[in-house]
Each structure stands twice: as structure tokens, then as C-alpha cells.
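Section 3.1 - Work completed
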Amino acid sequence: MNGHTSVDTHANGNTPPSSPTPGRRLRQLLETSKDIIVAPGVYDGFSARVALDVGFDCLYMTGAGTCASKLGQPDLGLATLNDMREHAEMIANLDPTVPLVADADTGYGGPNNIARTVEQYHRSGVAALHIEDQIQTKRCGHLAGKEVVSIDTFAQRIAAATQARERIGSDIVIIARTDALQTHGFDEATQRLKAAVAAGADVAFLEGITSKEEARTICQVLAPTPVLLNMVENGATPSWTTEEAQELGFRIIIFPFLAIAPAYYAMRDAFERVKKTGRTGVPGDFTPKKLFSIVGLERATAIDAAAGGSLYSKV
């Protein structure tokens, strides 16, 4: 239904041992794809299911969207490791053949905390996570007033992440994100990403890019390390298409607001319609069965039938 070749899964939702791991799948995309990897931002299971149905090859679990949908709170460092890991595990295992890139904020503490974060994200089926250089009481990268740790502390965070990956034999992709562009300027931000790559990061992420000149330069100076673009609409970064981002040199582009922004407007319109008119205006073809079909009714029916059941045969 989602346009991808499905694979059988164990009862716990993990892919069979013979299948490539999520990290390996993402690495293969980075190594073999000539096109930029497009990862739409999803904020819950339903938005992830819709993105999978459209046929994307990669998904992005937005931290801001997780805070908003799971906690009903702003992205001000309020989400804990458990909040983020639990959300990421659910999304990653809806279709383990589609890699999930997930926000991991600052790593949630010192080297031991960061090691635990990597271990838990790996066991949850996450393909890649990004760790940033903001202080612990962080905020959305497109808000003013950010503060960052020293370059040495940032490098230690990335080193702790990559060493944890090696200890557990994982191939999860480590993405180093710096928010220093707004606080210390382009040259300092570049040095931070170079230090992160030297510490073992696989992908670089310069938050809050403000011009095509900055974009081209960061991709050139960090080559051959892949660079990720965070395409936050109406934020610090100009609005670029996937084609423009690829021309600038980026290898991955994420769209954190792609699902949550239209969802807000659609839901608000529907709520206001009910309040004013008493009618929902829900399209006639959106039946309960359609909803359940989007989130896996066909697969659930097949599993039941394969075991000899007939519980859903008349759904």
C-alpha cells in the first residue's frame, strides 16, 4: 500500500536478521543515490503512515513536532530521552524498510547519557540521530536567544556517540548539528562541524543557514562528508526546493513542518466549522474503514488470516 517492498517482521517489530538494518539502508541511500534524500517531517504515527503511503524513501521525526503532539508543549528542551525514544520507536517500526532520521537534541546529558541515547535509539530501530551543540536548556533552532557549549564539549558529545555505536556494533548514522551560526558566525560553525567529523560524525548539519553562499560553502568545505539541510518554512533559512538544495550540494533535506503545519490549519478550520455550524464537513469518502486502512488494516487482516483466523474477514 505504501509503495515499498514489505518484509516480514518478528513479533517485536524488528526486521529479520537477514534484512539490512535501518542504519545500513540509509547508508546505502547516501552511497548509491544520485538524488538528494528527501525526508518529510512526521510528528506522530498517523502522519508517518500518510508519508509512507505516498512513498517516501526516508522519514524525519521532528523534535518540535514531537513536543507539540506528544506533550502539547513548545520545543524548549522539555522532551526527555524517554519521550523522544518512545516516539521514535513507534514511528521507525511502522515500516522498518524505510529509514527514520530522529532528533536527539543535545544527547540528554554528558558522555554516559549520550551513550545511552545512542544505544536506545539503535535498539528502537532508528536509522540516524542528530546531536547538537546547544546547552541543555535548548530551544528550537529557529528561535532567537540560543546558547551553545564550547567546541570541545561538542566534539566530546559526538565522540561519545560514535564510541557508543562502535561498542554495540551498530551502524546507526551519527549526524552532528551546530547552532553556532547565529551565535558565533559562519567560520566558528564550520570549525565545529569539522571537529565533529573528526570525532566520528557521518553527516554534518548547519542549523539556520541564511544564504545560498553559506549553503554552497559549507557543502564544499566539508566534502566528502554529506551535509543535511533543515528546511523550516518561514524560519531563518530561505525556502528552497529539493532540486535547489541538491544543486547547492546537500545530500539530505528534512522538512520538519511539512505535516504539522497543514494539519494545524485543517483541524482548526474543522473545529471552527463545528462550533459555528454544528457540521464537521468531513469528506464523504473518509469512512472508519478508510482511516483504518491507512494505518494498517490490510496487514492486520492478513496476519490474522495466515494464523487461521477469520476475525477481520468481514471488516
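Second construct:
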Amino acid sequence: MANTGADSASGQRSRPTIRDVAARAGVSKSLVSLAFTDPQKVGPQRRELILEAAQALGYEPNFLARSLARDSAPFVGILVVNLRNPIFAEIAEAVRQELDLNGEYGLITSAAITDSDDLPNSYGRIDPRVVRMLQDLRPKALIVVGTVPEEEAMFRGIPTVYASAAPRPNTEHSSVRMDDAKGMELAVDHLVSLGHTRIGFIGGRGGAVSAGRARAFITEMESRGLEAVVEPAGFSEAEGYRAANDLLSRDRRPSAVVCVNDISAIGVLAAADDAGVVVPDELAVVGFDNIPLADLNRISLTSVDPQNREIGRLSALAVLELLGAQGTPPSESLITPDLVIRGSTLAHRPQEAPPSD
């Protein structure tokens, strides 16, 4: 006798299965499956019979089973490479909101395993099990938020857009990211306008974005006839702290530094505090990403704002374009950033008191 969701020996009501629906409707299991995966191939009378049986039993088709029965799952995968960087959560949420506005939905997962004790690799490595899981689910498209360090983790056969990252040249994937050259120009222009000539850069490790920002810094400094001092570091606070200690211990230490991101810049601020170096009087600090922490009064970090929500929105639209037009060539969208100036480069000046009557 078919299980119709009656109480089991354990006292818990069992979940109805596709076999139960088939028995109640008097049809085969394969026809029930077809009614949920491709209803247009089932006659209206039998489809109605199956739906009535499912409703009576409280049956809901298994999402994973339905996904595997199709050529692809009915969702867009959103792979957030590293949850430690708060800009990625902001981008991922903007992606999901834009997908929702267009009748799609995204499944967010993370794939990075980080090791803060291994500074050169603290940005993380991709967990291949997560990669295989997404490949098995066959999402209709994929948005990768952040840098993917390993080439073997690249997704093949899935329309892919990189958000706030640059894919490897041979992957033929699209990308939406900040114009790093323009962002570095804003940062260096600001520091030079304040009279700084000895400017250092902390970054260059951790992937294509970090390396690209280092190259942009060197270009901006050399174009002004200034020495480009680069202290290699990745994206973490610990690496920013270590690199700042190295720079501050030099005989001709810089009077200003540009950091690869805000997290490493917070490490620089901590190193300056521990060394008794006053920010911004003795060391001006600029970050990248404009994370919410940068706006806190205790931090007050001048930062290049990459327009994270716009990056997320345009990444979602880029995926929708790939889905809507087969054979769409890969594209690169560069977002023009802004510079948000705060206390790490400009000391707070109290407003003049209004004249007394």
C-alpha cells in the first residue's frame, strides 16, 4: 500500500513522495515527474489530476531533483569568493536584487577557505568541493564576486560574469569592475595636492586586482616624476599592518600611503598608532573600496569608492544579456570611481564659531 503521508512508527508524519502522488492520481511516476518538470507535455486533464493529488497530499517537488532533470537549474549562481571583505556582500545583494527585478533569482554561496596565518595566501583558496557542487547543479549562469586565485577553479560551459574582479585573459568571461587606473589617479592626485611627494603603495599580492592596482600606482607616480615605493602585501589587515611596519622603519619613510583596499588600510592605521605616528599629520592614508567601516569616526579613512552597488547591478544585467542572446561576446565594463575624503588624509578643522551679537 502506498505511503500517503500517514504517521510513521516514530510518531512523525512522513513527507509525501512522487510515488504517493502517482498512486493517488492513478498514473505513473514518470508522468508525475513530467507534469512538474515540463507540464506542457502532459494533457490538461491528467495534469489537473496530478496537481489535485499533489495538493491533497501536501506534496512539493524536490528542487534538486527538478534541477537535475533539466539542462540547467532555474537559478543564477552567485559565488562570493571571500566573505571577509564586506564589499562582496554589498555587491552580491545588489546582484540578487537586480535579478529579482527581472524575474530571476540567485543562489549565493562562498568558496574560499582562508588562512590568516599564511600571509601570502590569506586572501584564500577555492574549495574544489564547492566548485563541483555548483557544476553539478548546473546553474543557468554564474556571477563570481571577487578574485579567483586558482585557474583550475574556473567554470567552463557556464555563462559567467566576474564582479569587482578581472578574469584571466583566456577564459572568455565578462567582467564588471572599477576602473582601477582612474581610482589610483584620484588617490595620487589628492595626496600630491596636499604636498606629499614621498608616497608608498601597500599591495600587489593576492590576484589580478591587487597586481593591477600596483601597476597603476607605479604609472601615476612615474608620470609625475616621483619615486614609486611599493611594499608587497595582500588584502588582509594583518598584511597591511606588517607592510606599514616595514615602510615606517625606513630611513626615508613615506609621508603618505595608498593601500590596495580598506581592510589593509585599517591595518596600516593600527601600525601607525603602535609606532606613535600621527595620522594624518605624519602619515596620510588612502584606501580602496569605501567599506562602511571607513566612515566610522574612529577610523575616518579616505577611500576610493568603486560604486559597489552599481557593479552588482550591472553584473546582473550582463548575465541577463548573456542568457538572452546566445553567442554574446565577452565584455568588460569599467565603472568610474569617486574619492571620499575623510580624516586619514585631512585633519578635521572645527567650524568657526558664529559671531556673537
